[in-house]
């Protein structure tokens, strides 16, 4: 993954410790893994429409995207506001709804009271300032750069013609012929562009306007990052608002919203079979 050439085993181990540490939240109740679960071959999400935050009764406003393969994407967050994993890792810690820490300095001061962290940062970042908010995020990013899936579609693309079943191959062809690959392309089948949600037919939920809520430019209305499809079968519910529970329904809605096409049951079943072939094989 880009950037991993500079990640030592010690740096990755520190990042993993931080990723699972609930002390990064204001009341010691929330870790990165709370919303992006990778423990015991976890899905990289919490499989909830919207994620609960550290403060009781507080919920995020967008569905938690998977952390698997995240560092291969062109940008981070649904609206692409972070350039890379390090910048992304800073956001939830300070977000008042998510981990709710009051300031960067408060995070540093909290970890500074933990001897093990002081020693680890002085070792890993001895030439880069030791314990700092940026280095906390950079260590977490180093761990996240190890989260790479592998699936049978990889084997198929590498020449194993039997890696996919006949139905999955039909689904791949249907996926291409229908036009899905116009946006869901590249190694991740997505994650590399922002597209209007409801390109042909308007999306019902207009309360979240995507990138427009960030830059206030009319052309940005309903622009969201095209989700990666690698491992997609494990990451329900779907869409930025977590409104769709099944993969088949998501396929049908996307065809209608983005392409103006009504898929047959046979087409939906085939595309679903192909997408399930993208499931991570541990």
From TrEMBL:
Major localisation: periplasm
Cofactor binding comment, as recorded: Binds 2 heme groups.
Family matches, as InterPro entries: Cyt_c-like_dom, Cyt_c-like_dom_sf, Cytochrome_c_Peroxidase/MauG, Di-haem_cyt_c_peroxidsae, MauG/Cytc_peroxidase
Cell compartments where the protein resides: Periplasm
An annotated Gene Ontology molecular function: metal ion binding
Binding positions for heme c 2 per the UniProt entry: 180, 183-184, 254
Keyword presence, Metal-binding: yes
Record PTM text: Binds 2 heme groups per subunit.
Binding, heme c 1: 32, 35-36
Protein name: C-type cytochrome
Organism: Sediminihaliea albiluteola
